[in-house]
Automatic annotation (TrEMBL), chain A:
Gene3D superfamilies, A to Z: HUPs (3.40.50.620)
Organism (species): Nonomuraea deserti
Keyword Ribosomal protein belongs to the record: no
Phylogenetic lineage: Bacteria, Bacillati, Actinomycetota, Actinomycetes, Streptosporangiales
InterPro entries, per the entry: PAPS_reduct_dom (IPR002500), Rossmann-like_a/b/a_fold (IPR014729), SO4_adenylTrfase_ssu (IPR011784), Sulfate_adenylyltrnsfr_sub2 (IPR050128)
Gene Ontology MF terms in the entry: ATP binding; sulfate adenylyltransferase (ATP) activity
Domain of life: Bacteria
Enzyme class: transferase
Region (Disordered): 281-304
NCBIfam families associated with the record: CysD, PRK05253.1, PRK12563.1
Keywords: ATP-binding, Nucleotide-binding, Nucleotidyltransferase, Transferase
Domain Phosphoadenosine phosphosulphate reductase residue range list: 32-257
PANTHER family xrefs: SULFATE ADENYLYLTRANSFERASE SUBUNIT 2
Stated name of the protein: Sulfate adenylyltransferase subunit 2
UniProtKB/TrEMBL annotation, chain B:
The keyword Repeat belongs to this UniProt entry's keyword annotation: no
GO MF assignments: ATP binding; GTP binding; GTPase activity; sulfate adenylyltransferase (ATP) activity
InterPro entries: CysN_GTP-bd (IPR041757), CysN_II (IPR044138), CysN_NoDQ_III (IPR044139), G_TR_CS (IPR031157), GTP-eEF1A_C (IPR054696), P-loop_NTPase (IPR027417), Small_GTP-bd (IPR005225), SO4_adenylTrfase_lsu (IPR011779)
Protein name: Sulfate adenylyltransferase subunit 1
Start and end residues of each Tr-type G domain: 1-208
Annotated source species: Nonomuraea deserti
Length: 304, 420
């Protein structure tokens, strides 16, 4: 008999693991939901969900925490993709949280709704009684995330306690919670930025156009290129110029920087990432730069 | 390109962070902004060298106290392989974290300071790696530069460790003399140790054969989720009924005769389905959906095996337990929730046979409880049958966790022994 080598490629291993995680959640929780922002990680997560339950439809709704400061291209993509799948989309609006007085809008040039999202997210989780919430976060993104579990326990207040996490062994996930508590679930924990792009290429997955090089009016702040938009406050000392840019991450216009790049295809993006020397969050996210522990502090409060 | 998951054991003093930092840096997995942040923090703290442990110690409390609290996962890739490092801390909660990191590891690196030789903690690390059945063990004898790259010293350590390891179940043991600080034998062969004829550490990590570490003999498919797309708009799937799960052992093919447990009924595999189309075979760790020729009553927590090769159907389990809870102890009569593959049940601790001293391997048969980070052998009674194999034969069908019913915390990791 011919001896066959049962080697499994890294993308197949990661996909199989993520599918296993999704099915565990569907089997063990009453009311899961999947956070879908229209960013590349949540797009990959959505494809995994499609695969995990095929030929049945995805057995949980999608939710987007909409700051009102998103890129138009991303919102258009979000709605189109949701419609294609016939999935139910819940939009939790930061603007509504502001209007209801749940949060207070920051003011000034560096105002951002980034931190306000946490309240909107937690309010929505409570209102819909979600007990498991899928997020697309990866451990390679940031050092606080490097220590977070795949099934990450949140208390009644939605808080994460990094010093008191449940040990996680083999592929056995502890799904037990009390009413009011929930679990954040990260099926892409072991993926790197490059894995995500390799997977997008292999699967031929569509992504929003702003990930590819395009000409845009931008200005420079703290070494980042921010877009010219109504919601972004720009000072007189911050002149606009046109540049060929693309986005490595997709967040709020107010805090997501573009990178100068000529990459117009997924292949070119992969080539570029393979040689880049700066992390995607370091290059493009003002929200992570505010302190050494910026991400940990926000996560403790209940952030994504 | 495949994935190698490895755990690193050792304390900061052994040069573990330096080694990881070097692997990450030389494979370009550390980015400039990360390195700048670490350099800045090192300077602020008055450290003379760039403290690479700051790369992995991400939590505020860790940086403030200069300790590692938890398992950190790090990623790097070479053109040959993608690597996932489970970096486990050396001091605090050591056993719990190393057991966690080792549970999924294909390989463990144990660091030894060439000046100090085999210490108590080296033996503890090796024991835990063997308990968790990590298939490949690398003893990295570090700081060779501080013993003048002495072959004699290296051989001494090798002999001492080999003699100890013969008491353990270590499958594949490799010794590599390195200097993490200078890079000797880390990425490329060192010219300082011409007497060493083996490969560099990275070369070993890239080439160690792991595909056959999985169990490809005993068919085990824990049913995870039943797929019945009644709402599907496509009428082709109206009567579809598939059983989804991740293969835990063996190779499954369409047409194979299989047995369903607990019913004991047999049927044949009609099709192995995936979103991307049916496949001709499925093996670990693939996530697939099985359809059968006969209509059986199958639900989550059931097991698919072969008529002539079945797991043990057990309500009484013998197991090694690593207790991981702060405060509460494990004692006879403790009631817990057990999660084993996709089945959850209740477990009663019938007996604690002994507590094992992880440093000396001495069995204390007088012990009446297990506290945090202690390991012991227990008998459990389960409220419903579990479909188990010896952990040494299959890590997936032999491993389980125990959950405290009051706090919902995961309080123990268990490994099935003597399943019959």
């Amino acid at each position: 008999m011919l001896q066959r080598d049962y080697t499994t490629s890294q993308l197949d291993v990661l996909e199989a693991e993520a599918i296993h995680i999704m099915r565990e959640v569907a089997a063990e929780f009453e009311r899961p939901c999947l956070l879908f922002s229209g960013g590349k990680d949540s797009i990959v997560m959505l494809r995994i969900a499609e695969k995990a339950f095929w030929p049945a439809p995805i057995p949980f709704p999608l939710m987007h925490v909409d700051t009102g400061h998103n890129f138009d291209e991303v919102i258009e993509f979000r709605d189109r993709r949701t419609a294609e799948l016939g999935a139910r989309l819940i939009v939790a609006s930061v603007q509504e949280s502001i209007d209801q007085g749940r949060v207070v809008e920051q003011t000034g040039r560096r105002a951002s709704r980034n931190r306000l999202q946490t309240t909107t997210l937690l309010d929505a989780i409570e209102a819909h009684e979600f007990d498991a919430v899928f997020g697309g976060a990866r451990r390679d993104e940031e050092k606080a995330r490097a220590k977070e579990r795949v099934f990450s326990f949140r208390d009644d207040f939605g808080q994460w306690d990094p010093k008191n996490q449940r040990p996680e062994l083999w592929n056995l996930y502890n799904a037990r919670i009390r009413k009011g508590e929930h679990i954040r679930v990260f099926p892409l924990s072991n993926w790197t930025e490059l894995d995500v792009w390799d997977y997008i290429r292999r699967e031929g997955i569509e992504i929003p156009s702003i990930y590819f090089a395009h000409t845009r009016k931008v200005f420079e702040r703290d070494g980042m290129l921010l877009p010219d938009a109504d919601v972004v406050q720009r000072g007189d000392d911050e002149p606009l110029f046109e540049a060929v840019v693309r986005y490595r991450t997709v967040g709020d216009m107010t805090c997501t920087g573009a990178v100068q790049s000529p990459a117009t295809t997924v292949e070119e993006i992969i080539e570029e990432i393979a040689v880049t020397r700066i992390t995607e969050r370091g290059a493009t996210r003002a929200d992570d730069r505010s302190s050494e522990a910026a991400m940990e502090d926000r996560k403790r409060e209940g952030y994504f | 390109m495949d994935i190698l998951r490895f755990a690193t054991a050792g304390s900061v003093d052994d040069g573990k962070s330096t080694l990881i930092g070097r692997l990450l840096y030389d494979s370009k997995a550390i980015f400039e902004d990360q390195l700048e942040a670490v350099e800045r923090t090192s300077r602020d703290r008055g450290t003379e060298y760039t403290d690479l442990s700051l790369l992995t110690d991400g939590l505020r409390a860790e940086r403030e106290q200069g300790i590692t609290i938890d398992v950190a996962y790090r990623y790097f890739a070479t053109p040959r392989r993608k690597f996932i490092i489970a970096d486990t801390p050396g001091h605090i909660q050591y056993t719990r974290n190393m057991v966690t990191g080792a549970s999924t590891a294909d390989l463990a690196i144990i660091l030894i300071d060439a000046r100090k030789g085999v210490l108590e903690q080296s033996r503890r690390h090796a024991f835990l790696a063997s308990l968790l059945r990590v298939p490949h063990l690398v003893l990295a004898v570090n700081k060779m530069d501080l013993v003048d790259y002495s072959q004699e010293r290296f051989e001494e350590i090798r002999e001492e460790f080999t003699s100890f390891a013969s008491k353990l179940n270590v499958g594949d043991l490799t010794f590599i003399p390195i200097s993490a600080l200078n890079g000797d034998n880390v990425v490329s062969r060192s010219e300082n140790m011409p007497w060493y004829l083996g490969t560099s550490l990275l070369h070993h990590l890239e080439n160690v054969h792991i595909a056959s570490d999985r169990n490809l003999t005993d068919v085990r498919f824990p049913v995870q989720y039943v797929i019945r797309p009644q709402r599907a708009t496509d009428h082709a799937f109206h009567d579809y009924r598939g059983y989804a799960g991740q293969v835990a052992g063996g190779v499954l093919k369409p047409g194979d005769e299989v047995m369903h447990l607990p019913s004991g009924l047999t049927t044949r595999i009609a099709s192995i389905d995936t979103f991307d189309g049916p496949v001709e075979e499925a093996f670990s760790p693939m996530s697939v959906t099985l359809r059968f020729e006969d209509d059986l009553d199958i639900s989550r927590g059931d097991m698919i095996a072969r008529p002539n090769n079945q797991p043990s159907v057990a309500q009484e389990l013998e197991a090694m337990i690593c207790w991981m809870a702060d405060g509460v102890k494990l004692t006879p009569r403790t009631k817990l929730t057990i999660k084993h593959t996709t089945r959850t049940a209740r477990a009663l601790v019938r007996d604690l046979h002994y507590r094992l001293d992880v440093n000396t391997l001495h069995r204390d048969e007088e012990a009446t409880s297990l506290g945090l980070n202690e390991i012991g052998r227990v008998s459990l009674r389960i409220t419903q049958p579990l479909f188990v194999d010896d952990y040494s034969r299959n890590r997936t069908t032999g491993g389980f966790i125990l959950v405290d019913e009051a706090t919902n915390g995961t309080v123990a990791a268990g490994m099935v022994m003597d399943a019959h």
